[in-house]
Prior knowledge:
This protein is an alpha/beta fold. It has helices at 2-21, 36-39, 63-68, 82-93, 105-117, 135-147, 188-192, 197-204, 218-234, 251-260, 271-281, 290-298, 338-347, 356-368, 381-394, 405-408, and strands at 47-50, 54-60, 99-103, 125-132, 150-156, 162-168, 175-179, 207-211, 237-241, 266-270, 306-311, 314-323, 326-332.
Amino acid sequence: MAKILTRVGAIGGIIRLWRAKAGYCEGPGENGGRSREERRGIRAGMVFLAGNPMVDTSIATTNDYIRHLGLEEGLEPHDLSTSRRVEIFEEVSQNSLAEISPGGSALNTAMALQWTLGKDSDKVSCCTGAIGDDDAGRLLTQACEKARVNAIFQIVPNVLTGRSAVLVPKSGDRCIVTVRGAYRHLRPSFVKSPSSPAYHAIRNAEILYATSFLTSTEARYRVADHLANVAKDRGKVFALNLSSKGLFEVPEYKRRILSLLPKAGLVFGNASEAQAISRSLYPNAETHDVESAVYRIAGVLPKRGSVIITNGRDPTIIAQRVEEKTIVSKKFPVTFSKNHNKALRDLGPVVDTNGAGDAFVGGFLAALLPYPQRPDIHSLKSVVDAGHYAAGIAVRCRGNIWVRQRVINMERPRICRDIN
């Protein structure tokens, strides 16, 4: 009898170990009477994101047409006049095949994060920015509700919601032209005043995230800086997206971004953005290859700060500052499980890279949430894989795809507490 009990106990231990690795939690009643998200330590409002909410109008086009408009494939121009932006937007909008969808980098990330967590995770992400009191603003609010994102928008009267024209050639390397609208009127008081719901949402969050697009005005830069300071004071994580290499061509924007880096626990970007910031940090360096650039960015982050740089189909590179003068880095190939490979093949070929980086960040943050401490760089594979999978979905659809039924029904990555 003792031997039988010993064997039963051993089997029970194995089952408990398997359940723990799969994200389950033992307790009174079935699963302790808690939801799956609660068992993983995930709750509403854990991620607060600030950016430029806008409505995207996208068309499939050719490189010749992009050049005809005076634009360049794969780039977002930052030096166009307002009148020229409006001209391009109106021309694109008149295309009978134009698709209209919710957009803006931070909002894209919030929706990808919610999708990755699954249908039972309600409003884990909270997104802020400024919108107009118009149909476009209402479209954004409704899209957030459908995607289970908690939208806390500042409403700007008598100013149109931001809009963008997205031109997608066959290569998928889109060109985006933004018509600046209400998002430029986001006030620091909206996030600092105790009477604002954004104030309380910020204090409820574990990760405070800002896009570098906010640095294009002093007021919005102060919003990003406020998030960084709150994160530092409350022992939370400030995350910064480098957003666009074009920002580093404007000295004032570049200065503001560089001032935020030493406060950032997580920095996201792509290869061209990393190289642009490397040139800003070390203008006299002989080389600015991607690996060197990632290492240099990590060097200005606080202790345990990590920089995560995607590079298309090439491996994602992460560098982490583990000590004052010690930086470790690791490459993560873009690979998918058998099931995820099939799901992506069924979805179709790559058609639009717009939002791929935003989707990666959403998947990455979703997979990172269950862990109370930021994990060691060598234990991040499942987190990076979740980001790659979300990005793989994003590039196979035009526009914001996280509220489409076909994508809603797709298999999610397993988010489980398997990091030591």
